[in-house]
Amino acid sequence: MRKFMLAAACLGVMVPVGAVMAGYTDAKNDPAAREVEQALVLKGDPERGREVYLLCAVCHQPEGWGVQTGEYPQVAGQHASVVIKELADIRARNRDTPTMLPFAMLEHLSVQNMADVAAYIERMPMTPTNGLGPGTDLAQGERLYQDNCVECHGEQGEGVPRKHMPLIQGQHYTYLVRQFEWIRDGKRRNADKEMVKQIKGFTVKDVQAVMDYVSRLRPPRERVAPVGWMNADFPNFVREKPPGGDLEEP
Ligand code: HEC
Ligand code: HEC
User: Fold this and answer.
1) Residue 197 and residue 208: Cα distance in Å, rounded?
2) Could you report the per-residue pLDDT of 197-221, keeping only the tens digit for each?
3) Which residue is closest in CA terms to ligand 2's atom 8?
4) Which of 39, 68, 176, 227 has its CA 20 to 30 A from that of 126?
């Protein structure tokens, strides 16, 4: 998408960014949506993004895998368009992320920084050992997923970058459950309205079953790092936890 828009911008073609965002956010009246538009037309430089990521590694870890208990999500492998959208929402306070908020403010993160760090994050290989659910209701989880989620998040939870549909495969179970509840209950104030409608009737057990299933959806093998892999981009990072997060069972 970004490549297309850049190419189009070079040719002086009008790019219908509004069309991409249509039905999703109101770019005219919404500062977060305006920032997303601005960041999406910039070319993200992963090399510069690596320097920005140093700020993020404290919580999301040098590998971008977060922690298995889901306190910090895995960001590695997320579509750049989604990372940009979430960063804009976090600093517009559309999401309640008090610990991260200071790091996401403009003085630390220009719109160009957002594009750069998103380009870096998108290329990071994903964790082979994400936190999983209890594994008790996977058939129910699969059924719910097929009926309610596939059209937006894809067969394998791979998302749709062009439409800012997040990749959710291989994410930590506890984080998935928390985000799902927050989206359902309106705590993520700029979440997808269609999704909110779709999941309104979910029971506690439904949520657990579908998220357990999602946590077990595997990314393509070439997108997953080997167990114990360490990100050589940050050789001096002082680790409190081994790569892959806290290794206790969720
Ligand atoms: C002080 C800890 C902390 C730092 C530093 C931090 N984050 Fe976060 N981040 C979090 C937490 C906690 C969440 C999850 C919030 C929630 O549960 O809604 C989060 C969520 C996110 C999300 C949303 C993930 C999703 O799947 O929706 C993105 C993207 C993200 N962070 C990127 C970054 C980037 C880029 C940086 C560096 C510029 C950064 N974070 C720095 C703690 C941090
Ligand atoms: C109509 C499209 C749509 C449907 C249907 C839908 N989602 Fe979503 N979902 C989205 C969008 C768009 C977002 C990003 C919201 C935002 O930007 O805050 C999202 C966000 C999420 C997140 C948070 C991801 C993150 O990294 O923070 C999870 C988890 C999730 N969806 C799971 C599901 C599951 C499970 C289902 C089915 C039960 C489902 N969604 C159905 C569109 C949809």
Assistant:
1) 18
2) 888 899 999 999 999 999 999 999 9
3) 195
4) 39
Pocket test for ligand 2, best of 195, 200, 207 (most atoms within 8 A of CB): 195
The rounded radius of gyration (Å) of the Cα atoms in the chain is: 18
Are 142 and 219 members of one domain?
Answer: yes
**Is residue 65 located within the same domain as residue 104?**
yes
Cβ-based neighbours of 207, under 8 Å, separated by 6 or more: 177, 180, 181
Rounded Cα gap, residues 239 and 231, in angstroms? 12
CB-based contact 188:179 (threshold 8 Å): yes
pLDDT of residue 54 exceeding 60: yes
Q: Which domain holds residue 110?
A: 2-123
* pLDDT tens digits for range 236-250: 898 877 787 664 444
Q: How far is CA 181 from the centre of its chain?
A: 16
